[in-house]
Amino acid sequence: MINRFSMKAVCIIGAALAILGSFLPWEVWGDFAAVWLYGIQIKPTWVDNGGVLIVCLGVMILGLTIWPLRFFKTTISWLVIVSSILSGVAVYHLGAWLVRRIQHGSMIGATSIQIGLELVCLGATLTLVGGIGRDRRKTAA
User: pTM of this prediction?
Assistant: First the structure.
């Protein structure tokens, strides 16, 4: 039987993975001079490719999981809403990568997925599962 504490841990781990994945490379393409696409690129210049939204949603999920606010009557419902938005953003970026992959076809140096986007998608899935699991536990109790 899965208890409420384990669903809370799943939400925390998922949000941490999504935040970490925002700073790691998402895609790479090119054969001789590879081009790396990051969610948030800090050096040599600041570039945001959608990672700031993921970091903000991840921080909101961590806040709703660890320190639930008193003025929300149903914090767990807000957790499900925010994790659903995070999952939608992750699916959008995964779909954008897939479109670029199909456009490049089988040419040499076609775009390939990297660990950052994989961690964002895994983290978004974990937060959604953890949020729904916590919501079910609360409604069943």
Answer: 0.87
